[in-house]
Write a structure and sequence with these properties.
The protein is mainly beta and 978 residues long. It has 12 helices and 61 strands. The chain has 5 domains: 197 residues, Jelly Rolls (Sandwich); 77 residues, Immunoglobulin-like (Sandwich), CATH 2.60.40; 278 residues, TIM Barrel, CATH 3.20.20; 102 residues, Immunoglobulins (Immunoglobulin-like, Sandwich), CATH 2.60.40; 276 residues, Beta-galactosidase, Chain A, domain 5, CATH 2.70.98.10. It has a 9-stranded antiparallel beta sheet, with no helix packed on it. The longest helix is centred in the middle third of the chain and has 15 residues. It is globular. Bound molecules: 1-methylethyl 1-thio-beta-D-galactopyranoside (IPT). The site of 1-methylethyl 1-thio-beta-D-galactopyranoside has 12 residues, from loops.
């Protein structure tokens, strides 16, 4: 550390300004005929603890050699050095991981010196200019080429370019970049994610021939009244615009009107063209569409749009935010295949190639600026907030400008978002004014200033259903200022974040979707968030798991809050994604088995149903009886029709009959193959959906030397516990269970005012219930075991009676639960827990599946016959918690090689089935998946009721109808070992 005189100006990395020396921002282009040299690859790298800990000879000295002995190592660029063995990633959500004193940053400021030597390719032109382009560097860079300093910049996820033509040599160019992890810019980049410094996007050298395109702006509107596209391309310098497919050859600045197919996320029609100037040909991908706020609605091409969106951070478990093209493509394909039609680029402009994929494959994009100052919310009235500090305003406007200029030619981008969670301030106004002036053809979004003064939307995050409904009716509470209130009340409504997908959940998606369909003002939302940001680690014994905040030596961190996505870190879809996919299906179908019809509604905004083929299937007890294609007219958007089903196929197969209708892609598309399922509906018609309790009396229990014998079973004479059923010795007899390993949503977020359920449950002791035996009674109608289940130190309890009867080779177990004392909390669940030997590793069931389902997350579960191993039934939430329940089960069989199969049949009502190799207590104690060690027992849960999931890990808890309140419960199952 060198001494700095007291009165010296602050260094560039503590400067409020965005930097100096670089060129004005301009449009990103998919392709051009100008030469380009990628500088990606292996660079030399050295890490220092402080910003000025090492001298700058690496950048300026002609004879410098990056010696291993002097701490130089190879480093992959693009990449984050903390993911390549130098330092460590760190996670905080709201809090800045350094003292808050803008624009100052800590002396401990990890600084990476990057150096790369390159030659120009043979064919690199001698004439013209050359530009050095950085697509993303976190958080502040100082750049030298061939010993000459080019400038400095801040603004991590934004492009920065320098003119370098005069400095280039044919061979042996030395590019040196000093990157500081912390800068004044860090105060503007307090997004909820890992802090990952480095040159994490490409570095390119771009040739700029004389007369090359400096910048261009494609204006491609769609006049929905005439069906014409309206094209005008601004360019400097001027040139010509060619769109052969439309027969267009016009001058830049000139307007053309031609009949076109419009661009929408559902029909992403792009026209390829070219912009030709004297020195360059630049590819154009033109999508004709017009965005408007009209009649209080956000419209594209004259129609209201419903966003079925997600918030997407850039994340890859090995590469952090240094995403490759294949991963970006995978994200877009996964979104499309899961019926998602919109993405908010939380909370920074993504890699530009991602937007190109959105153009091509069709997603509405809310492009968000690289801005968040959330950490200031912890101080009184957001004291010190950079968006309310005019010294930061130039940097804010610079960020808005870099985003808009870079991304302005993407048809998929329909909304500019100023940033996330910055409270309110004039700096936001300055950004919004700059954007509106430069691009009046898109809408502007900002959420965190609830007056909506700088936004075309009334936008909220995590608003509960009831409030969304109120807003949908334009009946929200008024703002004090009548003018602002009038503006906000006439604005369309968005949930820029909702349904916090952390761990098990989110619950309540279907109910939100209903509100979006009912109220035209509610134009949908963006689930928080797309992917879990978990980094792979291994235990000392070599067991892999995903790490989260606190696993990397951070002194301050926010734990597993960084794992709250619809995808697991390795991009495996979580049950939450499957649920969302079902809830946002583009076709709604409702089967009326009595009338023999299915009501089909096209729930898309633009396309007709022509892309889909429909089919029907009739199954009995999960086995197909008949099926075939279903002819559905190509209904327009919003239209519906009643379509006749064929007559119910005759069959003598006994069991529950189920109609299923499905819509699938009729032909291959760019994002999925023909046959890919987009929607389905089901309806059971069964003669015996669930068996009623048998009424015929069975044999009476009797005491024997071994215990109490009842039909096929033997019970312990002292406590009435089931010991054996037929040939199956039961190691752990069924008994009442109310505990589940709290989910992130059960735990709730620390800032929640509402009751956090798991906290109440644990305080009450529901995780340590004791079972007191009150009596074992034998009677003609069976064996009755009475008990009281209650935790220490509590006056509440559950009087529980198990009544056993023998029916043929089966046992009928009826359980009654009567709450005692002043219960004031909900229950996690009510059900039975029993243990089988570890060999019981396969489960077959007729019920909901194939995946897990809870009361408010059960839309995606289809009634059918499913089969899985016990291991495959587990959902590997990054932080272990309750998971894996199969709902709506009519019967289930647990099988082991060479041992009798246990068959459980639902009586009166279906049950929820869970089987795992550890107990809820083990699950509760585990911090990572690697802590879950299989035991000698397969624990089987036959649950009668569960508390809902909700979304309280950040938003509202389960809706009241999904609260599991103590009351009298009575439920029954039949057990057989065959
Ligand atoms: C909201 C943030 O905008 C988002 O970045 C993320 O942190 C999310 O919450 C939670 O995962 S802010 C929240 C405190 C309302």
């Amino acid at each position: 550390m060198r001494n700095r005189p007291e009165d010296a100006p602050l260094p560039y990395y503590e400067d409020f300004s965005p930097g100096h020396g670089d060129l004005p921002p301009r449009a990103w282009r998919p392709a051009s005929d100008a030469a380009r040299l990628s500088l990606d690859g292996t660079w030399d790298f050295r890490l220092s603890d402080t910003a000025e800990g090492a001298d700058t000879a690496f950048a300026t000295a002609e004879d410098f050699r990056p010696d291993a002995a002097a701490g130089w190592h190879p480093l992959a660029v693009p990449g984050h050095w903390v993911l390549q063995g130098h330092g460590a990633p760190a996670y905080t959500n709201v809090r800045y991981p350094f003292p808050v004193d803008p624009p100052r940053v800590p002396t401990e400021n990890p600084t990476g010196d990057h150096r790369r030597v390159f030659d120009l390719p043979e064919e690199w032109p001698e004439d013209g200019e050359s530009v050095l382009r950085f697509d993303g560097v976190e958080s502040c860079a100082r750049v030298w080429l061939n010993g000459r300093e080019l400038g400095v910049f801040q603004g991590s996820r934004l492009p920065h370019e320098f003119a370098v033509g005069g400095l280039l040599r044919r061979a042996g160019n030395v590019l040196a970049v000093r990157v500081h992890q912390w800068s004044a810019g860090s105060y503007l980049e307090d997004q909820d994610m890992w802090w990952l410094p480095g040159i994490f996007r490409e570095v390119n050298l771009l040739h700029r021939p004389a007369g090359a395109v400096e910048d261009h702006f494609v204006h491609a509107g769609f006049d929905h009244a005439t069906g014409e596209g309206v094209l005008r391309v601004e360019s400097s310098p001027a040139g010509r615009v060619l769109v052969p497919e439309l027969g267009l050859d016009l001058a830049t600045g000139e307007e053309a009107r031609v009949p076109v197919e419009p661009w929408t996320a559902e029909t992403p029609r792009l026209y390829t063209g070219e912009l030709v100037t004297e020195g360059e040909r630049v590819e154009l991908r033109i999508g004709f569409r017009t965005v408007a706020i009209e009649d209080g609605l956000f419209k594209v091409n004259g129609r209201r749009v419903l966003f079925r969106g997600v918030n997407r951070h850039e994340f890859h478990p090995e590469r952090g935010r240094a995403l490759d093209l294949a991963t970006m493509r995978e994200d877009v394909l996964l979104m499309k295949r899961n019926n998602i039609n919109a993405v908010r680029t939380s909370h920074y402009p993504p890699h530009p190639a991602f937007l190109q994929l959105c153009d091509e494959l069709g997603l509405w994009v809310v492009d968000e600026c690289d801005l968040e100052t959330h950490g200031f919310c912890d101080f009184e009235d957001w004291r010190g907030n950079p968006v309310a500090d005019e010294r930061f305003t130039p940097a804010l406007v610079d960020r808005a400008r870099r985003m808009v200029e870079r991304d302005k030619n993407h048809p998929s981008v329909v909304v500019w978002s100023l940033g996330n969670e910055c409270g309110a301030g004039e700096g936001l106004g300055a950004m919004s004014r700059w954007i509106r002036e430069r691009d009046p053809e898109r809408a502007v979004h900002y959420e965190n200033d609830h007056t909506s003064r700088d936004s075309d939307f009334y936008s909220r995050m995590y608003a509960p259903h009831a409030e969304v409904e109120l807003i949908g009716r334009r009946e929200e509470e008024a703002l004090e200022d009548p003018e602002l209130d009038a503006h906000r009340r006439s604005s369309p409504f968005l949930l820029c974040e909702y349904a916090h997908a952390m761990g098990n959940g989110p619950g309540g998606l279907a109910e939100y979707q209903r509100l979006f369909r009912e109220h035209e003002r509610c134009q949908g939302g963006f689930v928080w968030e797309w992917i879990d940001h978990g980094f792979p680690k291994t235990t000392a014994d070599g067991v892999p798991y995903f790490g989260y905040g606190g696993d990397f030596g951070e002194e301050l961190h926010d734990g597993s809050f960084v794992c709250d996505g619809l995808l697991f870190p390795d991009r495996t879809p979580s049950p939450g994604l499957l649920e969302y996919r079902k809830v946002i299906e583009p076709v709604l179908m409702e089967i009326d088995p009595v009338a023999g019809v299915v009501e089909v509604r096209n729930d898309q905004d633009f396309a007709d149903l022509g892309a889909f083929a429909f089919e029907w299937v009739y199954e009995v007890e999960g086995e197909s009886v008949a099926g075939g294609p279903l002819t559905v007219p190509p209904l327009g958007p919003g239209a519906s029709a009643r379509v006749e089903l064929p007559g119910r196929p005759g069959t003598d197969r006994p069991g529950t009959g189920v109609w299923t209708v499905r819509a699938a892609l009729a032909a291959d598309t760019a994002w999925a193959a023909r046959g890919h399922r987009v929607a389905w509906a089901q309806r059971a018609v069964g003669e015996r959906a669930v068996e009623p309790a048998p009424t015929t009396p069975g044999p009476a229990p009797r005491r024997t030397d071994e215990g109490i014998a009842l039909g096929p079973a033997l019970f312990d004479a002292r406590d009435g516990a089931l010991l054996r059923l037929g040939g199956l010795a039961v190691p752990h007899a069924p008994r009442l269970d109310v505990w589940r390993a709290p989910t992130d949503n059960d735990l709730g977020a620390s800032w929640q005012d509402d009751e956090r359920h798991a906290e109440v449950w644990r305080a009450l002791g529901l995780d340590r219930m004791r079972h007191r035996l009150d009596g074992v009674a034998l009677a003609d109608d069976g064996l009755t075991v009475r008990s009281r289940v209650a935790p220490a130190a509590a006056e509440v309890g559950l009087a529980t009676t198990y009544h056993w009867r023998a029916v043929g080779d089966e046992l009928l177990l009826t359980v009654t639960v009567q709450p005692e004392g002043p219960w004031r909390s909900t229950l996690p669940k009510v059900g039975l827990r029993l243990g089988l030997p570890a060999a019981y590793g396969t489960v077959t069931w007729f019920g909901g599946g194939p995946g897990e389902a809870y009361p408010d997350t059960r839309q995606a579960a289809a009634l059918g016959r499913h089969r899985a191993t016990v291991d495959a039934l587990q959902t590997p939430y990054v932080r272990p918690q309750e998971n894996g329940a199969r709902a709506d089960v009519r019967w289930a069989e647990l099988a082991a090689d060479g041992a009798p199969t246990l068959r459980v049949t639902a009586v009166d009502e279906p049950f929820t089935l869970t089987a795992r190799r550890w107990t809820p207590e083990h699950l509760d104690a585990a911090r990572h998946t690697s802590d879950l060690v299989p035991s000698e027992t397969v624990w089987v849960h036959l649950d009668h009721a569960h508390h809902g999931m909700g979304s309280q890990s950040c938003g509202p808890g389960p809706l009241p109808e999904y609260h599991l309140l103590p009351r009298e419960f009575r439920f029954a199952v039949r057990l057989a070992a065959r």
